[in-house]
């Protein structure tokens, strides 16, 4: 059963957030010493911000090592409140506000919680593009979660390993289609053992918590022989010594491919061949809380985050487009407290944030089928 989100913020609440955050712009530009002085003098705006900051600390279990560190994070928090209001104005069909990333700078957020390297569209090392599919008969709504092909939302932690989670999610789904079994596969094997470089010669290599590419990971798995389950190779959130055991391989892939950029084709491959690994620009995700994200401006030329496309819906209310518009359902790897129980809704049909420019999928077969050369999987 798919979890549902509570009611969206009212228009009044959104306007209030925007106006409140604007009052913090001066605070976000001050030094730590200025913040300490203003707190001592009882600056009302900053005191209100600090009250919200303390609620944030309580909600997300934050503790800081010194008073100076506390004041620095308060300054960053104030700036992120302003950023959330700016994002709300640029992305009015979504809800933006305080998240677990509200005490991080943009650089810290991208370094610790994203991880697609060399993220130029189509710079992802696949040998070719899958042929177009027939579009007739596609369902109006579709969700692989409802069919049992998607594992629980995972947590990559402070590690730029999103590429590994995007890869395993795609293979978990493909394996479910091939075998009828949903296995929880190991991201840690990829983090520890995969040093594969992009075949296009850009020298973009998979490098644990310092990033990677999903198609590099597919190449590694073709060469290594397969992927272990999470239970035999558990996630630690940091790069360690490679402990891959070929005798514990749970899933083998036989090939992989890029998916055409046309979003109707992406929908067709999603329905007919399972969840898809995608890269996108995560610039609006640091402050995302819910709703359908459809920002007025979002660069498609730089992708920095790997996620999993699991479904779509025909109707998501859109203020600016004056009606019900379709959206994608995207599984993230930041835990269930982020977004809509760990998921992201992104409007469909606009190539939003470059989500259609780095889409890939793996082909999976069972070990028995590999030995008998029987290809009983969703072929391309």
Task: Record the SSE blueprint.
Blueprint: H1 11-22, H2 25-28, H3 32-41, H4 44-60, H5 67-90, E1 94-96, H6 106-113, E2 142-143, H7 162-179, H8 187-193, H9 214-224, E3 227-228, E4 249-258, H10 263-273, E5 276-280, E6 288-293, E7 305-318, E8 323-331, E9 343-347, E10 359-365, H11 367-372
Helix pairs in contact: 1-5, 3-5, 7-8, 7-9
Offer a quick outline of the entry.
With 380 residues, this protein is of the alpha+beta class. 34% of the residues lie in helices and 17% in strands. Strands 1, 2, 3, 4, 5, 6, 7, 8, 9 and 10 form a ten-stranded mixed beta sheet that branches.
Care to describe what's here?
48% of the residues are buried. The protein folds into 2 domains: 11-90, no CATH class; 111-372, Alpha-Beta Complex (Cathepsin B, Chain A). The protein has helices spanning 11-22, 25-28, 32-41, 44-60, 67-90, 106-113, 162-179, 187-193, 214-224, 263-273, 367-372; strands at residues 94-96, 142-143, 227-228, 249-258, 276-280, 288-293, 305-318, 323-331, 343-347, 359-365. Helix 1 crosses helix 5 (67-90). The chain is 34% helix and 17% strand. Strands 1, 2, 3, 4, 5, 6, 7, 8, 9 and 10 form a 10-stranded mixed sheet that branches. Strand 7 and strand 8 (323-331) form a beta hairpin. The protein contains 11 helices and 10 strands. It is globular and about 65 Å long. Mean pLDDT is 86; it is low at 1-9, 22-29 and 370-380. The protein is of the alpha+beta class and 380 residues long. Keywords: Disulfide bond, Glycoprotein, Hydrolase, Protease, Signal, Thiol protease, Zymogen. One of its GO terms (biological process) is proteolysis.
